[in-house]
Specification:
The complex is a heterodimer of chains A (148) and B (127).
Chain A (H helix, E strand, L loop, with lengths): L3 E9 L3 H9 L1 H7 L3 E3 L7 E6 L2 E11 L3 E6 L13 E9 L5 E9 L7 H10 L4 H17 L1
Antiparallel strand pairs in A: 1-7, 2-3, 3-4, 4-5, 5-6, 6-7
Helix pairs in contact in A: 1-2
Chain B lengths: L3 H11 L1 H13 L2 E2 H5 L6 H13 L3 E6 L2 E6 L1 H43 L10
Antiparallel strand pairs in B: 1-3, 2-3
The chains are: A alpha+beta (148), B mainly alpha (127).
């Protein structure tokens, strides 16, 4: 998929089921994500997250226990979140043995839809490393140019 | 939560074709829209459209040289984008780190409970 903003992963010494509960249960989410979380883990469910004195709505997209969980956030008040007006956060849990889980997160959003998918795909293939790497490279080239 | 200015920046560079234009500008310095069009697989009109968006986001500036209009990257703004992107990545690294600690602590506690409960199995008494 083209236009992914951020992709990170971590290896956790716990079964996928335990990791799943950590990323989906509101009282646990409030320990690693927002200060306060109101969320029912069902596709299409609307929830709320409080960050300091700011709050925002979230909408659950995918619930595939204990393998995939995704939600949309950061969309304009009063609008339904869709691709183009919101950020999509996708968690993927992959068991590595009985007591170990690889957890991946991808956060994407703000893609404009005025380009053919084939063109997006081509460029995504060229930059398989993704966003962070692309910007890293740009920053390096820029730094070199500035030294000259 | 992001601000409106961030949104403008993100949507400017979220598009793969615009990243290609930016990439070319970073590597080649002051070039014209026609030169850019010769190095991409999309049309001259598309290049112009992308340059307008990049300019509005402050990522690209233009100047006239003779009859030509030359474009260049604005390093400060691009640097800002790079840093913001790195911030987002490290924000997720911190969150994943917290998830790891929480999950591993829960798992360790559950295993410990399992271990200490086994000998007591069937030995629970109610008041």
């Amino acid at each position: 998929m083209a236009g992914l903003v951020i992709e990170r992963e971590i290896l956790i010494e716990a079964p996928a089921e335990v990791v799943w509960r950590t990323i989906t249960e509101p009282d646990q989410m409030s320990q690693w994500f927002a200060d306060r979380v109101e969320l029912v883990v069902e596709p299409g469910a609307h929830g709320f997250m409080q960050f300091g004195d700011q709050g925002g709505q979230v909408v659950v997209e995918t619930v595939d226990r204990p393998a995939r969980f995704s939600f949309r956030w950061n969309y304009p008040r009063g609008e339904e979140p869709v691709a183009g007006n919101s950020m999509l956060v996708e968690f993927t849990l992959t068991p590595e043995g009985d007591e170990r889980t690889r957890l991946r997160v991808a956060e994407s959003g703000h893609e404009l839809l005025d380009w053919p998918d084939a063109e997006k795909q081509r460029y995504a293939d060229e930059h398989r490393g993704g966003w962070a790497e692309f910007l890293d490279r740009l920053a390096k080239v820029l730094a070199m140019r500035q030294q000259r | 939560m992001t601000t409106r200015a961030d949104d403008e920046l993100w949507s400017a560079i979220a598009d793969p074709s615009r990243r290609r234009v930016l990439d070319l500008l970073v590597s080649n310095g002051d070039v014209s829209a026609s030169w850019l069009a010769g190095h991409v697989s999309f049309s001259r009109q598309a290049v112009s459209k992308h340059l307008v968006v990049l300019e509005q986001a402050g990522l690209v500036s233009r100047r006239k040289q003779g009859r030509e209009v030359l474009y260049r990257v604005e390093p400060g703004r691009l640097d800002q984008a790079t840093r913001a992107m790195a911030d987002l990545a490290s924000q997720w690294d911190r969150r994943l780190g917290s998830i790891k600690r929480l999950a591993e602590a829960t798992h360790a506690a559950a295993k410990e409970n399992e271990g200490s409960n086994t000998p007591l199995e069937g030995g629970c008494h109610d008041g």
